[in-house]
Amino acid sequence: MASSSLSKPDPRRKPPSTGTRVSVLVPLPFPGPLDYLAPMPLEPGDLVTVPLGRRETVGCVWETDRTLPADFALPVGREVPLARLRPVAGKLDVRPLPRSLRRFIDWVAAYTLTPPGLVLAMATRIHLKDAPRPALGWVRTEMSEGDLRITPARRSVLNVASSTPMSTAELGDRSGASAAVIRGLATAGLLREAVIAPAAPFGLPDPMHGAPKLSEEQAEVAQELCGPVETGRFQVTLLEGVTGSGKTEVYFEAVAACLAKGKQVLVLLPEIALSAQWTDRFIRRFGAEPAVWHSDLGAKRRRETWRAVAEGSARVVVGARSALFLPFADLGLVVVDEEHESAFKQEEGVMYHGRDMAVVRARLADAPAILVSATPSLETLANVESGRYRHELLTARHGGATLPDVSLVDMRADPPERGLFLSPKLCTAIDETLEKGEQAMLFLNRRGYAPLTLCRACGHRMQCPNCSAWLVEHRARGILTCHHCGHTERIPKDCPECHAENSLVPIGPGIERITEEAKLRFPDAKLLVMSSDTLGSPAATAEAVRKISDGEVNLIIGTQIVAKGWHFPKLTLVGVVDADLGLGGGDLRAAERTVQLLHQVAGRAGRAEHRGRVLLQSYVGEHPVMTALVSNDFQTFMEQEAEQRRPSFWPPYGRLAALIVSAPSADAADALAREIALAAPEREGVQVLGPAPAPLAVLRGRHRRRLLLRTMRGIAVQPILRQWLGDIKPTGGAKVDIDIDPISFL
Ligand SMILES: Nc1ncnc2c1ncn2[C@@H]1O[C@H](COP(=O)(O)OP(=O)(O)OP(=O)(O)O)[C@@H](O)[C@H]1O
Ligand SMILES: [Zn+2]
């Protein structure tokens, strides 16, 4: 069993005054690794504990990276004399971080302009140092009860306890007795502690287990995907295919090929909520569970998984973007499912795009990457066009299922009744679907009851005290809340401005309000609501998915979570409550993203024998987004998008970086933004836009300004930013955050 004991140098010996210098990267925002003295033989990648100030931290032995492009390389500080170096305190008993991961950390740091230690922190944030204390449980001893008073609670514990150790929690659960009762029995000698054998790590997936019979088209594509896996070379392939065409089934063939070679696979999903259904499919195909990786894993499971990945015994990892930083011993394939999803972008801390970094991760491991989508991003399409990525296409739904029939409900011509949000047309379609014993789904990408609360008397709008944002009503919880900072207040009875009584009214719908309307309109429907408010955990999501699959519900109402890659055979109608929702707000990718999201929701309909229907409620039926969805012609739409972005070098035809200035006061934010603007670079092919107040001009009490740096594709933004911001020293709590390849423009 792995342990993380420290091999400490003998404390009686004085630290050596001479020795070898070793660079150690620590998980803190230093510009680069720090130098230490190595009292024991150390190799790059070794995890060590080192003194830092008055405490100790885990770090990783680092070497200078010579593979980074010159303009990425970090400035080298002045060397500390050997005599003044402090010695490394100890070496952790874990595998060294593999070279491909170390290079990846350097790369991400350089690309995102993040101190490399903070990127390392994402790879080592698993409390390796905490000794994995062997878990203890209780077993029944040989001792007889003698004259010990046996209460009913004690009796029930003794009935459950056996020679197989059970944790206090488990024993308590199964006997209904409290921990105190269990401890009492231990004191009396009837129970004793024993080590619980660690659960077997991860099963071995079998490439041949449940191999499906592929259609001719599927088989051809699968073969193309397997090629680079077998030869073990870096190559990116876009796997594009209509919804329900079997993309998952097809890339599973590449997974199988990789397993057959004895290498490891990483599959990234945009959201952990999807991992349950994915895992089920994986088990059916490969007869064993994959290792799952996301931020909700318990500390123990994280440690086990990390080690199993490092040792190579976890063969397939499915996870959120953070799985990119796992120490794969022998990575042979990277898959990014739903590659167009903006959820792959991390917006806090180290701001990186999971899809783009997955490609880098694959390249540094000499492994192929597969990007999967029904509606690929323009970024990926541009890479296909330029020949950097290969392109494989699945054109037909599996098993003869046809694509759903998408039509518009013109809300100007066919409006709902006053105060309601579901049009007569949509309601009729739902009635018909439910009557046939099929399932319908209503999609609205907005949590809560209403996005705005307004005073009927004076027009006052309920706003967040910390952000420039309206408060969203969550009626079930009786609160108004800010979706940006989490500020919460009770819904007041009277207007806080003019004190008119009962004058506050909700404006517009969130899914709570749609649910209320649906309950009245379809009293016999069996409703299920799916949103992050009702599905707190992956387990809750799995349960909801099961209810839908088993037909326990027939009307599903949800936010974007329902749009994901679910496969619900009985679902035949999808109603989009507000198809125009994503189009506002001047975001570069607003139209692209709306098309992708709505097409994905639409793709949930009619995946089995019954034909699906999709109704889009819209006030702008002539918008290119609606045309693309109704005609199912994304190519034309994406070509138009490309033509709009190409001339002025918007991504992917140019490069973009956002500078977000924030400060405790508006004046301080303005001052820093001005200073930055004055120092702006001037050269051919480089343009600076702004400063301008951010759309969220105040966020969590901080005032925000934005600038954009836009360059032609051949000009990297990192060296420009380093030089530009190098001399800017924000003071008084002001700061500037850099977002390379921004996705959000808030
Ligand atoms: N060759 C096959 N044999 C048996 N079942 C298949 C085959 N191909 C696809 N399927 C089944 O068809 C359904 C749809 O396939 P899958 O989910 O892989 O499509 P997809 O393209 O990934 O869909 P989406 O993009 O909508 O998520 C699944 O239930 C899958 O198991
Ligand atoms: Zn707020």
Written description of the protein model:
Residues 228-394 form the Helicase ATP-binding domain. Its cofactor is Zn(2+). Keywords: ATP-binding, DNA replication, DNA-binding, Helicase, Hydrolase, Isomerase, Metal-binding, Nucleotide-binding, Primosome, Zinc. The chain is α/β, with parallel strands linked by helices and 746 residues long. The protein has 6 domains: 6-124, PriA, 3(prime) DNA-binding domain (GIY-YIG endonuclease), CATH 3.40.1440.60; 136-195; 216-398, Rossmann fold (3-Layer(aba) Sandwich); 401-446 and 511-641, P-loop containing nucleotide triphosphate hydrolases (Rossmann fold); 449-508, no CATH class; 654-740, Ribosomal protein S10 (Alpha-Beta Plaits, 2-Layer Sandwich), CATH 3.30.70. The protein is globular and about 75 Å long. The two termini are 48 Å apart. The protein binds adenosine-5'-triphosphate (ATP) and zinc ion. Residues 464, 466-467, 469, 482, 484-485, 487 line the site of zinc ion.
Relevant terms:
ATP binding; Replication restart protein PriA; metal-binding; seven-stranded parallel sheet; six-stranded antiparallel sheet; binds adenosine-5'-triphosphate; helicase; zinc ion binding; 22% strand; Rossmann fold; GIY-YIG endonuclease; 746 residues; alpha/beta; disordered N terminus; 19 helices
